[in-house]
Design brief:
This protein is an alpha+beta fold and 67 residues long. It has 1 helix and 5 strands. 18% of the residues lie in helices and 42% in strands. A hairpin with a 3-residue loop joins strand 1 and strand 2.
Length: 67
């Protein structure tokens, strides 16, 4: 598990609340068929800005991260 003041990782990266409005992630709705019944799930996907943010944390280049 990796933790910092901004994100943590167990099986995937999750943002702490104070970073959730920075444009690092967006939500998509996924439709699927469950035995003839249409269902939906919500997916959180990382934006390019979010991927840069995670990369900067992992590599230690926090001063060069996205603004």
């Amino acid at each position: 598990m990796i933790t910092t003041a901004s994100v943590f990782c167990i099986k995937g990266w999750l943002l702490y609340a104070k970073y959730q409005d920075k444009g690092f992630t967006k939500t998509k709705t996924n439709l699927y068929n469950n035995h003839g019944e249409i269902k939906t799930t919500m997916l959180t996907v990382w934006t390019e800005k979010g991927r840069e943010f995670i990369h900067c944390i992992v590599t230690g280049n926090n001063d060069k991260g996205p603004k």
